[in-house]
Amino acid sequence: MIPEAREVHLSRKDRKVLEACCRSPVTLQRDLKRARIVLLAADGRSTRSIAKEVGVQPRIVSLWRHRYADHGLEGLQDKPRPGKQPIYTKTTDKRILKLLDKPPPQGFARWTGPLLAEALGDVDVQYVWRFLRSHKIDLVARKSWCESNDPNFTAKAADVVGLYVAPPAKAIVLCVDEKPSIQALERAQGYLKLPNGRALTGQSHDYKRHGTTTLFAALEVATGKIIATHSKRRRRVEFLDFMNSVTAAFPNRKLHVILDNLNTHKKNEDWLKAHPNVQFHFTPTSASWLNQVEVWFSILQGQSLSGTSFTSLKQLQEHIDAYVNAYNDRAEPFVWTKKKVRQRRFKGHRITQL
């Protein structure tokens, strides 16, 4: 049974809105039909005739006549539907976060999704993973920092950074350090044929040791070029021999040399007196990462040493020398971008930041 038709009275403003809706090419079909129903009802048409023209059932026409008569244009919008009640709420999210603040179960290094779900008891592991992803919580990733207890950290760091940012005029700034005990490993390499016919290239976990070499390196800050030599050991005598070769490479030039706090780098006053053009600058305690040559050592490891195989110590040394020559052909200086050096307290500890 069709309810009694409601009279529809359109204001001039509402009529313009509905007519514009009917003319627009982007209007949804449901909104177009509702607008036509109201416009035809305002012209005095009957419910059945409107239903026939618009192509809907009479009860649909009656519904939108009543909705517009009671609520105006807002009545033509869909009402919010309750839908299914969510299983997990903000209370569940708070429980997950609270659990993450606690240590993991005994014997485990860190929380995992299944461990969290098991500890909560009533939360599915898939929801745990979705919650962690939505909050960008990575259970595996770990932040690291370097904590320095050097009371003169700021002054020392500012001295080193100052040499990077504003080096003294007509002087050479060098970063010097050693990469000790680089192993000449001979790995079994080649092809591994699988039963399905595929062949994999790679190397075996088995290897032979052919000795080690210590690489002394000096990075020229202004150009990014490297001076490097090999040695069997990293004693004071080897360090000073390397410094003699460095000073010979820059005759009659003032040298500012940045070093870490290794014992062999210190207590070299006699050598410094014999080389008055050389001045040593030491990084703060536990802050050798301020030395730019450490960046180059990382590049060397990634581009030249990782995954390689050598049949002798000499082959390893020649390989490194070849890489140094190739690197110097395209060397560029590292750019120091940080502007401030500061210290702050973090849970009772002094954390050094740049």
What would you note in describing this structure?
The protein is an alpha/beta fold and 354 residues long. Helices cover 40% and strands 20% of the residues. The protein has helices spanning 12-23, 29-42, 47-54, 58-71, 90-100, 113-120, 125-134, 153-165, 236-249, 269-274, 293-305, 313-329, and strands spanning 171-193, 199-220, 226-231, 254-259, 278-282, 342-346, 349-353. It has a 5-stranded mixed beta sheet with strand order 3-2-1-4-5. Strands 6-7 form a two-stranded antiparallel ribbon. Helix 3 (47-54) packs across helix 4. The termini are far apart. The model is unreliable at 350-354 (pLDDT under 50).
Q: What percentage of the residues does DSSP assign to strands (E)?
A: 15-25%
Give the strand order, joined by hyphens, for the main sheet. 3-2-1-4-5
* Structural category: alpha/beta
End-to-end separation in angstroms reads 79 Å
What is the gyration radius calculated from CA atoms?
A: 38 Å
**How is the main sheet built?**
5 strands, mixed
Shape: elongated
Q: Tell me the number of strands.
A: 7
Order of helices and strands: HHHHHHHHEEEHEHEHHEE
Oligomer classification:
single chain
| Averaged pLDDT | 85
Helix content: 25-40%
Question: Which parts are unreliable, with pLDDT below 50 for 5 consecutive residues or more?
Answer: 350-354
Q: Tally the helices.
A: 12
